[in-house]
Amino acid sequence: MNTKTMEGLVGARTNMDLMNTPFRVYKEARLKGDTAAMERAMGYVNEYSDKAEEYKAEADKGIKEDAKEAREKAESEREQAIRERKEEREKFEKGIEENRGESIDGDTVEVSPEGKKRLEESVASEKTRPDVSEESTVQISTGEKDQHFNAVL
Fold first, then answer.
1. Contact, 38 vs 26, CB < 8 A?
2. In whole angstroms, what is the distance from residue 127 CA to residue 12 CA?
3. How far apart are CA 66 and CA 73, in angstroms?
4. Could you give the angle at which helices 35-101 and 3-32 cross, rounded to 10 degrees?
5. What's the pLDDT score for residue 129?
6. Strand partners, 95
7. DSSP the chain
8. What pLDDT shows up at residue 124?
9. pLDDT for 75-110, tens place per residue?
10. Is the pLDDT of residue 114 over 80?
11. Which of these, 14, 12, 15, 43, lies nearest to 29 by C-alpha position?
């Protein structure tokens, strides 16, 4: 909180509190019919009221300054965040460009003679295997066919 705002709020509150005493004197003087005391008391009430208005204006000015500072701070933080995101994006794009520039060589696999032999045997055994459907029915001991049993051969 700005010092002007605090000073204005405290000053306005204090003068409003100080205004209560002369106003009470004014009421008592009115009951007694003492116009001179009434005029003096009302002069003090007006004086404290004017001071309270001045402090209120100062508090308003301080609030506006606080709001302006808050807007400027938010704007600078927003600009900083934009700058940081832009730098991150540029860094990311630079990394992508570097990766594109590199030649991508695949890994090579060398199969041993024993592995080649096993592969050939595996392929040959699949060719000689009889053709069987994937779904089969199984007859259970009760003589019924179970349609839910799937056998893969």
1. yes
2. 101
3. 10
4. 160
5. 61
6. none
7. --HHHHHHHHHHHHHHHHHHHHHHHHHHHHHHT-HHHHHHHHHHHHHHHHHHHHHHHHHHHHHHHHHHHHHHHHHHHHHHHHHHHHHHHHHHHHHHHHHHHS--PPP-----HHHHHHHHHHHHHHHHSPP--S---EE-TTS-EETT-----
8. 82
9. 999 999 999 999 999 999 888 888 776 655 556 778
10. yes
11. 43
Cα distance between residue 23 and residue 100, in whole Å: 84
Residue 138: predicted pLDDT:
54
CA–CA separation, 145 vs 151, rounded Å?
Answer: 13
Residue with tokens 């055994």: 125
**Looking at the predicted structure, is the pLDDT value of residue 153 above 50?**
no
Whose tokens are 């069987």? That residue is 132
For 61-71, b where at least 16 C-beta lie within 10 A, e where not — what string?
Answer: ebbeeeeeeee
Question: How confident is the model over 117-127, as pLDDT tens digits?
Answer: 888 888 888 77
Closest CA to 21 of 54, 45, 46: 45
Cα separation, 143 vs 136, whole angstroms = 15
